[in-house]
Structures are given as structure tokens and as C-alpha cells.
Amino acid sequence: MNFKHEFSVGPQTLVAMIMASLVLLSCGGGTTTPNPSLSRKVPGTLISPPAATGNVVPIVIDAGPVPTTASEINVAYVSVTVCTSGTLGTATCQTIDHVLVDTGSSGLRLLNSALYSNLNLPAVTNSSGAIGECMTFADGFTWGSVRTADIYLGGEVAPSVPIHVIGDQPGGTTAVPGDCSSTGGINENTPALLGANGILGVGLFANDCDACLFSAVPTAYYICTATGCTKTRVTSAQVVQNPVALFQQDNNGVLIDLLAVSSVGATTSLTGSLIFGIGTQSNNALGTATVYATDSYGNFRTTLNTVSLPNSFIDSGSNALFFYDSSIPMCSVTTWAYCPPSPLFLNATNTAASGGNTGPVSFSIVNIDALAGNVIAANIGGPSTRGQFDWGLPFFFGRPVFTAISGMSTPGGSGPYFAY
Is the pLDDT of residue 121 over 50? Predict the structure, then answer.
């Protein structure tokens, strides 16, 4: 079983990590990645855009896209339909299953190997070449081209959206830029490595890198030709965007609603809903949920064992609860996780970034090695950076969680915020 530490960072946090790591990075000539598995699927039967079906997309949590070789745990998936831009009503679309739902990032990222070879998604270019992107996650990175697609999610449509196609070769280059490949971790360019066929980033921000609109940020966007890539700034029409912010309605955030999970978890699957909008329809009312406003980096404050953790966040793309506690033994088999000898019951307090709303959270941590065979567990955790608590997918079980997009108006005030 593959217990992946699969959490991502928001656009502002990404830039901060890039800038902090520049001292350690070398800007080498890049790494070639000849890999036949990165090529597109054979031609497939393209479909017409789906009919409108409301503001809900079903979520399933199961063993993942390749369970025979790498079963996943606590990964929430949806199906996404992408179409060639501007061809409404014609058969130029494909539906991709097992796309991870991620409130910790913004933008749609799809594996090139998950797309049919006859699906023609236009490349995003400028006068110098094709746009490529490197996106850093906690356990690796993704590299590939930026292309444009119409995105259909339930009855919602986001037209002409720049998306990241992982493993696609922008401008025909066969090399990953050196500063991208040097970020650490693996190049997550296959379903087994990514644990999904793509990532649907429905986080706090309208795009994945605000700073990239103003300067050429290292380890972010590149202009590429067949001879290589150079970092570049991008325009608002080139940056990878959160599709939710582009919906005609229900565009101010999302609600993730998952069933509760027993203490022993589940071995097969769990279902839930990804609901678009906050306070825009009867099924996404904020109700009695408490709003926890974040700072401009998408963080609020968690207090655990009297220690203040100001860089905390809620992230459906993390498969466990991640926090630093040196007193909890580590696992011998699942080496990234905590394995207390008996269930550990803990209490924390979450507080809005600027003060104000505060509330307790009770949780437990169990020995993950004893859960071999499970694909769902509500009480697993592992170590994280000091000063942060990553409330991953276990936080969502039995607890509806809202994610409000920065600058968007909602009944709970303008985003960015989490609410539950």
C-alpha cells in the first residue's frame, strides 16, 4: 500500500518557498526525461459537453487509478470533463476520472498520459515559444505545458481556462528545467507517482501564482522551445487559474461534504460531494459554520499543546493530519507517519489569522501500520514543518468544510477563509 504524503501549497506560499530555497538551488541545464509512459493515450471516443446537472460533483475515495500497484489512502477524487475551447456543442471533450480534489492549490492539472491523443487542447504561447510550468508539492513536483480548455464540473462551466498538462513537453523540449528538478522529491508524472490522473485545485486563490504576473519567478513559469526553457512572467491569460472563480455563478468558493468515518476506517470506498458556491443556493448555505479568515498566504493559527502554529491551513489534498511532535514515535513501515503504541487523543484550537473567531478541534492518531489494506482512515498523521498544522482529508470526514476564494463576496464576508 502506498501511503503518500500528498499535500500542496497555495500560490503565495509557493513563492515564499521558492525564494527561501534559492540559496540551495542550482540552475543547471535540466534533466532529460525520455519516458514513453508520458505520451497521450491512443485516440479515444470524444464526447459532447455534458448537460447541466446542478452545482454538485460526486466525490469518491477509493484505492486510486492504479490500485493493483499502488493503492492510495485518504485521497478524494472527482471526474472532470475538458473540452477544446470554443467548440460548444460539438464532440470535442473527454472525461477524466480519479482527479484529486485539492483545497491547498489552485488550478486544474492533468496527466498528459490520461488524455486521448485526438483531444486537441491548444498550447498557451507567446511570441517566443510555449508556456511551461513547474509546480512544487510537499513530496515532489510536476512539470509540463500550459494548455487551454473549457472545464465542465457538474452543471458549471469555466471557459478557456489555462490548465497544466503534466508530462507534456512545452515547445517540444525534452528536458525539465534544472531549478525545477532540483526542488527535491520526485517528478510526479504518472498515475502511480501522482496517486491520481490529475489535481483539481479549488483553493483560496483565483490563480496559482500572483507574483508570476509581475516578474519571472524561479521554479514557476517558463517560455520553452525545442532547445530548452527560460523562466518568464505570465499574463492573466496564461497563468493557471482556479476554474471555480470563472464560473458564471456559484463562483465564490466550494463546500466539501464527506461522510463520517469510523475509528477503524474503511477498506473499500467512501462517497461525498464537491458543491460549488457559498450561500448561492440552498445546498451550500453557510449556516452555523464558523469562519476562520486566513492571511494573504492562506494560513490561520492552530494552537497545539500550548504551542502556537501560525502557518496552519486546511487541505483536502493531504491524506493525513500533519504536525510536528517529536514525542510521538514514527512508524517502521510507513516511514513518513506517526505510530503511537496506542491511540493518541489530542486537542487543538483554531483561530482566525487576525484573531477573532476561535474554536476547539479534537482528534486522534493511531498506528498506521496496523491499517494495512485500508483506503480510508480518519485518524492518521505524520510530522510537518514546525509552526504549521496541515489539517488534511481526515479533518473533512463528517465535517462539511467551506473554502472561500480571495476577494469573492460570501455571506460570511470576503475570502480568503475556511469555515466549518
Answer: yes
Predicted confidence band of residue 105 (pLDDT cuts 50, 70, 90): very high
So what's the pLDDT on residue 5? 34
Outline where 8-80 has alpha helix (H).
11-21
Same domain, yes or no: 170 and 114: yes
Using DSSP, state whether 133 is helix, strand or coil: strand
Q: Is the peptide bond before 416 cis (omega within 30 degrees of 0)?
A: yes
Quick: pLDDT tens for 271-284.
999 999 999 999 99
Q: What's the rounded Cα separation, in Å, for the pair 246 and 111?
A: 22
Find cell 460548444 and name the residue. 88
Specify the pairing of strand 401-404 against strand 321-322: unpaired
| 208 and 90, same domain (yes or no) | yes
Residue 18 lies in a domain: yes
Instruction: Report yes or no on 4 lying in a domain.
Output: no
- Give the angle subtended at the CA of 4 by the CAs of 3 and 5, to the nearest 5°: 125
Taking only the tens place, the pLDDT of each residue in 342-394 is 999 999 999 999 999 999 999 999 999 999 889 999 999 999 999 999 999 99
CA-to-CA separations, 372 to 5, 87, 263, 334, in angstroms, rounded: 16, 46, 14, 10
User: Residue 269 in 3-state DSSP?
Assistant: coil
Domain with 411 in it: 278-419
Residue type, 293: A
Spatial distance between the Cα atoms of 81 and 48, rounded to a whole number of angstroms: 10
Confidence (pTM): 0.91
Per DSSP bridges, beta strands 390-391 and 401-404 are: unpaired
| pLDDT tier at 69, thresholds 50, 70, 90 | confident
Find all residues with CB under 8 Å of 391, minimum gap 6, and list them: 302, 312, 313, 314, 315, 318, 321, 361
Query: What count of other Cβ atoms lies within 10 Å of the Cβ of residue 236?
Result: 10
